[in-house]
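Okay, is this right?
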Amino acid sequence: MIDAHILALVTAALVGLCAGSFLNVVIHRLPKMLDRGWREQCAELRGEELAPEPRYNLVAPRSQCPACGHPIGALENIPVVSYLALRGRCSRCGKPISARYPVVEILGGVLAVAAIGKFGATWTGIAACCFLFALTALTFIDIDTQLLPDDITLPLLWGGLAANLFGLFVPLPSAVIGAIAGYLALWLVYWLFKLIRGKEGMGYGDFKLLAALGAWLGWQMLPLIVLLSSAVGAVIGIALILFKGRDHNIPLAFGPYLAVAGAIAMFFGPAILASYFR
């Protein structure tokens, strides 16, 4: 018989690969959906009526090649396998397919295996998978658009509070204080920077993301998350300026560093804090 733990990890890998495929859709379409919604709201405020547009959401229309419009069939949409079989090119026009698609799919599988391996095939393990998938989507959306959509950050925050209502990661009071402290910490940094420099240093999405991390992991993890994210952000920012000549006045997305720090804190935070206090 197959060991139950091995079976759980294999199942997690398959589910994670499929989740990664869906995350690709979210990363690509959600910013466009938000942009369309904003344009419609602006037109409504101006008293204008926009021409009706084709339905566009996370389900419709079907995925298609951006170069030739070829609809992607089921056999061409198998995570990682289809990309390798097609050699990274569209089956009709032969244009290259971005390597990001299999990377996100593999990342989904790896994170799911890591979560189930750490927490087991339990409600905590399933919740951890959802947490990590949301962070993955936010990371790539922020890299592309420098946006952290409320459509993900707010459900992530409430999801953390709901999970800890049952004490899956931390006691509920710790989660509530974490959500409050996470938001206020970066809110204060934002206003201090604005008062000193006269310009915005980060977006409101960063406040909400840190609040969500506090809701999931508790207020005790917030100093570690802020320290890790700041250190990684500083190193990468300086490297981009030195080696790629990036203008330091151009904003750099901070959400990915918060997301990476949050994932590290989920897996290794208690051990890091215990080691530090020893």
